Amino acid sequence: MSDFHQNGVITDFHNLTRRPVEALEKELIQFARRRPMGLILPSLFSELEGPALSKIVDELAQVPYLNEIVIGLDRADRDQFLYAREFFSRLPQHTRILWNDGPRLRELDAELESHGLGALEPGKGRNVWYCGGYVLASHRSTVVGLHDCDILTYDRGLLARLMYPVAHPRFHYSFCKGYYPRIAEGKLNGRVSRLLVTPLLRALKVVCGPLPYLDYLDSFRYPLSGEFAMRSEVLEGIRIPADWGLEIGVLSELQRNYAHRQLCQVDIADAYDHKHQPISEQDPSGGLNRMSLDISKALYRKLATQGVSFSSEDFRTLKATYYRLALDLIEAYDHDATMNGLSLDRHCEEQAVELFASNLLEAGNLFLDNPRERPFIPSWNRVQAAVPDLLSRMHEAVELDNQGKV
């Protein structure tokens, strides 16, 4: 079943009845003959020692239609990389690990920096960007999925539903965004989406006026989900932030580069739980504190490219508008949780909103104070124009790391 969520900007495949994963995989095997499929897994080394990733690998080992799996490994020394090679060796698919902290890839990263083309800081966005470059260099996949490595409730049906709309040979979709209910252990989760993004988009509509871009973002049920699938050519032309603004940045680039009829979203899971980030009220460099700053800046940057002009007074107005809307939503979430027998701590919800409101103003100040900031990693099309052989050398470096001595 499908419907058009809210304002009908993008197609929404809402699964009112779920097909068995075996039936989906049987079709995906057929689709893979025309559209070979790969998967990107951006990972910190710490996630190899966490409770989720080992089960994810066990599930992926049973997926019959994937042609390759590319793992981006951050914050790993030599021994940890060798451990990762062994950890992922049980995957039967063509599997490669990008050791982002290894000497070979760091050398290529320094070369990109010398051309002014690299990511200025490490982060999930930088990890995904390099993995995307490797996928382009390997030529093994024309459809690429991506999901996080901390999903505690993972099963391979999630991936099948995510890949299906882009892999189907009769469908015209270039990109698919996954969504799911953020409920676990009797609690309503998804604080950043519920308490920051939703009221912020509504506040921006009030302060900046109605804009197609804001309607477009508001049409996604869960714009911050880390699960999406795309045609491989999408990876060539998009610019993405290196930080926590990745998901908003990707959606923004797609709105710029593709018609809405080429984009869709799909319900991929009945239950979803992952590692929960702390609020980190006293540490602006971590947790939801840092995440809210990066997401806010990503939205401001995109609106500026569309001709929206911001001043200090605008950001103060935005903060006040957001705060009132967010508090109204907390009441609605409280009622929703009560009706569904879920718990919700209103005090903690309001504390989060107070932090996010403060960060809206801080992100605005950072935006105004640094007009020359390079917010996006350049597209791979631009990299290939500047350094034509870089992708082939990256492919060679990854092969040597995975098959040779390190």
From TrEMBL:
UniProt keyword terms in alphabetical order: Transferase
InterPro entries: Nucleotide-diphossugar_trans
Keyword Transferase found: yes
GO molecular function: transferase activity
This protein's name: Glycosyl transferase
Organism the protein comes from: Vreelandella nanhaiensis
